[in-house]
Design the sequence.
């Protein structure tokens, strides 16, 4: 699983950088305001200037100080490390400070997008080959069906699952969703 999180606390001219884990993340409240759009634009530009692609931003206004979350991935698709998150926090912090977008104390969290439950890209299907998945599809009678098994491959024509040692081929045009599941199902 790829996941890292670095936090830069900025109060005045003082900043602190430290790694934290998954348990620290909590539910969130998005800021329905122009600042979110401006922050996303700023984060996307800063990410691109530093060889990253922006995956998402969130502004959590219910926290004191306010928390600004930025998810990045390498522009070339490689995994993001804790060092990558830590090194990106400095240019992101500098961009925020120079833009004068925020006038109050804030916490900046930089992370990778982690594992998405739904497999979408060819890279997702290659990365999670052999992992337990649930495939949702429509059969010939247009009824929604589900099969669980180990992901074997996805081609341009089908998704191939290993279900208790037997291979099951599901036509790709019938597949509506492929999701990672826990090994127990």
Sequence:
């Amino acid at each position: 699983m790829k996941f890292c999180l670095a936090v830069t606390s900025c109060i005045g001219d003082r900043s602190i950088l430290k790694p934290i884990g998954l348990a620290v993340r909590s539910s969130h409240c998005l800021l329905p305001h122009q600042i979110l759009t401006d922050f996303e634009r700023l984060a996307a530009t800063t990410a691109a200037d530093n060889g990253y692609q922006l995956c998402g931003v969130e502004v959590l206004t219910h926290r004191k100080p306010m928390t600004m979350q930025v998810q990045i991935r390498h522009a070339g698709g490689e995994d993001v490390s804790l060092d990558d998150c830590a090194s990106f926090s400095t240019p992101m912090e500098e961009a925020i400070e120079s833009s004068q977008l925020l006038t109050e104390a804030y916490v900046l969290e930089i992370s990778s997008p982690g594992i998405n439950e739904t497999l979408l890209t060819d890279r997702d299907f290659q990365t999670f080959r052999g992992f337990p998945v649930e495939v949702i599809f429509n059969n010939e009678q247009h009824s929604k069906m589900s099969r669980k098994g180990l992901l074997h491959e996805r081609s341009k024509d089908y998704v191939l699952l290993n279900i208790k040692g037997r291979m099951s081929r599901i036509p790709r045009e019938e597949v509506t969703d492929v999701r990672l599941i826990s090994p127990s199902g």
In short: Residues 1-32 have pLDDT under 50 and may be disordered. The chain has two domains: 5-111, 122-180. The radius of gyration is 20 Å.
